[in-house]
Design goal:
- By secondary structure, the protein is mainly β.
- The chain contains two helices and 46 strands.
- The strands form six sheets. The protein has a 22-stranded antiparallel β-barrel. Strands 10-11-16-17-14-15 form a six-stranded mixed β-sheet, covered by helices on one side. Strands 4-3-6-7 form a four-stranded antiparallel β-sheet, with no helix packed on it.
- 37% of the residues are buried.
Length: 795
């Protein structure tokens, strides 16, 4: 039999009334007429053993209902026609529709074309799937373009977030990436949106994932492709604001037989100007502070990955990453102290220069093995992560009387901080799909060592001397199990994760080490009901832990001005959260979610001001228990070929109750967020596209302060040339300069106000060129290493 197939259209849709996923199809001839009584065989691809059989009816339609998740292959044959083989995906996650055209004997087809299309938005038991490949954002864009269209995802100068969540973590193919801040944004931008299959929004992660983090996960799933040969892309561009930034990124992939190589190189040069103003007002005094900073930085990052197919079922791989970045921050501060009646008491002028150097090194090894054709597999990963920060800060302070007479010329303050992290982790994951349920089992161990040296120069003013050596060790052992079951129109998933943690923190400022050992259980539960193909209801629950960054445990005082310091807390404890969600999805365009998050022992950085000494301190406290309850709506319109419209609406209330760490009691605040994102194709070839986005954030809570409302309008244009190999993009953000935030509140009886503007109004120009074959390399992999996300990275 000859292998012939002209066109197969696979469209994934949700059908009611079946626990398994159906395979429906229609067989036609060259004249588009139905082929009656064609034989349909469903067989195991590896063993060629027959699983099910069927024949086409009077209109050429057939139906199969496989009971297991296998590597399937269809054999379609009919008298007088060439037989056809159709390879199906390893796991049929949704119902599948096929259109098969048979060729009469004596004619031979020259090629096989397969087309797949899924709904834009799909609600699964524990996550929302945004199928990027069916969105206009996949045309000529990057990972940030695609993420900004995903339901509930918000991208601004604070990074990547889920609306209503404090913070999230980013994964690529189920593996956490080990970057943060500007470099996380740069990394995601380096992924062409055309290489992204889908984005998974996991607002309540299952027991398979780390319990750390009181918010959700975003998983970027890349297209799997073993296309032979060489390909890659080069992306360069700049950002123009009050200052400028320029960057260059290169991605290179090579596949040859069983060997797969890839590399990602990037470099950046930046200048960023920022201004901030703060005021502290007590019963007898007022302090106002104006700070201007100019940050100049340069650096680069690179990685190389090597995968090798030991067998058809076993892959091993290694990845090495290294990066460095240098910053210089020139600052100037003017402060004014007022007595009762707003009478000027004195002024303070500060000038400073802060030099920072960040280095990163990461090595990982992984092995994936498919146990059999039913979907059973085992994954092992091991990772070593090394990170370092060197901070040299010098500043000079002078104070003056109201008559501008010099009151005090403080000795120049010089301090050097050297912080180093070594993290080793290994994990084992086992997937076992059975008829009674699909099981996941796993274990992980992690060992963390952190050392922080802080030295003030002998010539520094005596009141700020606080030399310190801080050593921190943390060991965690984790076990987890999940079970997933489909029955009739229902699906249910249960999970339990156990984490055992031992920590030791010792400081030269303390007489004894601070130790903390604890064992915690983290259950998860998911229930989904799909009464028909248009509607889906689901409920999720999960318990989480939020561990503090390692640097927040250091009791040393880090001065940034003669009267301003930041101090860690070695007694800081993790917080715990219980998260509930009730979701409803209508078709693939409307999603509704009602959620509640209960956080106990919450911690954050709080600003305190002593009116007697005029000293401002930034300290860490477990200060409150809080509850956040909200309603989220996502509406997507994509039925018009030249317009795609994504809208978000979220209203929520947060109630925070102090546990006694601060004088104030309960804080309650209603808030909300709305946005509309519109992408337009301006020509029939879809090589010229425009985007207009508007978002509005209502007043919200931030560390016991309330922010005023802020909003922005963004416009962009994207043009593609040379068969879409060359893409030119022009983006303007915050064009009306309306995203500046202002905060106010009361902490321990002192009224606080602050505002900061980080040059959010900017224009970005980008040029991207793709070369080689049009399809990407095998999907990249990043080790699941949550511990590195607790480092304040500058890479």
């Amino acid at each position: 039999m000859k292998r012939n197939l002209l066109a197969i259209f696979l469209t994934f849709i949700t059908l009611a009334g079946s626990a398994q996923h159906l395979i429906k199809g229609k067989v036609i001839d060259e004249d588009n007429q139905p082929v009656i009584s064609a034989s349909i065989l469903l067989q195991k691809k590896s063993e060629k053993s027959i699983v099910q059989t069927s024949i086409t009816d009077s209109i050429g339609v057939f139906l199969l209902n496989p009971k297991q998740t296998l590597q399937h292959q269809l054999v379609i044959s009919a008298i007088g026609f060439e037989s056809t083989f159709v390879d199906l995906p390893d796991a049929l996650h949704q119902d599948t529709i096929l259109l098969v055209r048979l060729t009469r004997q004596g004619k031979q087809l020259k090629e096989v074309n397969i087309y797949m299309k899924a709904p834009l938005i799909v609600r699964k038991t524990d996550r929302i799937l945004f199928n990027v490949e069916n969105s206009l954002s996949a045309i000529g864009g990057d990972g940030i373009d695609a993420l900004s269209k995903a339901p509930g995802v918000r991208i601004n100068d604070n990074g990547i977030n889920i609306v209503g969540k404090n913070s999230i973590k980013i994964m690529v193919n189920d593996k956490l990436i080990q970057l943060s801040g500007v470099d996380l944004i740069s990394y995601v931008k380096s992924i062409p949106s055309g290489n992204i299959k889908r984005i998974e929004i996991i607002t309540n992660p299952s027991a398979r994932y780390e319990a750390d983090g009181n918010s959700g996960l975003i998983n970027i799933v890349l297209k799997q492709n073993g296309e032979q040969g060489f390909n890659g892309m080069i992306n360069t561009g700049g950002i123009i604001a009050s200052r400028y930034t320029a960057g260059l990124t290169g991605i290179f992939n090579y596949n040859q037989g069983k060997l797969h190589l890839s590399s990602n190189l990037s470099g950046v040069y930046l200048k960023i100007e920022s201004k901030s103003f703060s005021a502290f007002s007590g019963p007898k005094s007022l302090w106002e502070r104006q700070l201007d900073e100019l940050t100049t930085g340069k650096g680069g990052r690179g990685d190389i990955r090597v995968d090798y197919d030991l067998t058809a079922n076993t892959i091993i791989g290694v990845k090495y990453m290294e990066g460095a970045r240098h910053y210089t921050i020139d600052s100037k501060e003017n402060g004014a102290f007022y007595a009762t009646g707003r009478l000027l008491d004195s002024t303070l002028v500060l000038t400073g220069k802060d030099k920072l150097k960040y280095t990163l090194r990461n090595f990982e090894f992984y092995l994936d093995h498919k146990i059999d054709t039913s979907g059973k597999k085992i994954e092992f990963t091991s990772n070593y992560f090394k990170y370092g920060t060197i901070d040299n800060n010098h500043f000079q302070s002078k104070s003056y009387l109201p008559e501008l007479e010099l009151l005090n010329n403080y000795q120049p303050v010089g301090l050097a901080q050297d912080e180093r992290f070594d993290i080793f982790s290994s994990k084992l994951d086992l997937s076992l799909p059975y008829k009674f349920a699909s099981l996941e089992l796993g274990a992980k161990i992690s060992n963390i060592k952190s050392k922080n040296d802080l030295v003030y120069e002998p010539s520094s003013d005596a009141i700020v001397r606080n030399n310190n050596l801080f050593d921190y060790k943390e060991n965690t052992q984790s076990l987890y199990a999940t079970a997933d079951k489909n029955f009739n129109k229902w699906s249910m998933k249960l999970g339990l994760r156990m984490e055992m943690t031992q920590t030791t923190g010792s400081s030269s400022l303390q007489t004894s080490a601070n130790k903390n050992d604890y064992v915690q259980l983290f259950p998860t539960f998911y229930l989904k009901h799909s009464p028909n193909e248009n509607n889906a209801f689901s409920f999720t629950y999960g318990r989480r832990i939020n561990r503090p960054d390692y640097s927040l445990l250091n009791p040393a005082r880090l001065y940034s001005a003669i009267n301003v310091y930041e101090e860690g807390n070695p007694f800081l404890k993790p917080s715990f959260s219980n998260n509930f969600e009730l979701n409803y999805n209508y078709k693939d365009w409307l999603s509704t979610s009602v959620y509640s998050n209960f956080v106990s022992n919450g911690f954050s950085t709080l600003d305190f001001f002593d009116p007697e000494s005029n000293i401002q301190s930034r300290v860490q406290r477990n200060y409150a228990n809080s509850v956040t309850t909200g309603l989220s709506e996502t509406l997507t319109i994509n039925k018009i070929s030249w317009w795609e419209n994504n809208n978000q609406f979220n209203v929520y209330v947060e109630r925070s109750k102090s546990n006694g760490a601060i004088a104030e009691g309960t804080l309650k605040q209603w808030s909300g967020y709305v946005s509309t994102d519109n992408t337009f194709t301006l020509n029939t070839k879809k090589t010229l596209m425009a985007n207009a986005t508007f978002w509005y954030q209502f007043p919200e809570v931030a560390n016991r302060l309330i922010s005023s409302a802020y909003y922005a309008t963004d416009l962009s244009l994207r043009a593609m040339f040379m068969d879409r190999k060359l893409t030119f993009s022009l983006n303007s953000s915050d064009i009306f300069k309306t995203s500046q935030r202002k905060y106010k509140g009361i902490v321990n009886g002192v009224h606080q106000f602050n505002t900061a503007y980080k040059d959010n109004r900017k224009t970005m120009i980008s040029i991207l060129y793709r070369f080689g074959n049009s399809k990407g390399n095998k999907a990249s992999r990043n080790t699941d290493d949550t511990e590195t996300n607790r480092i304040k990275q500058g890479i």
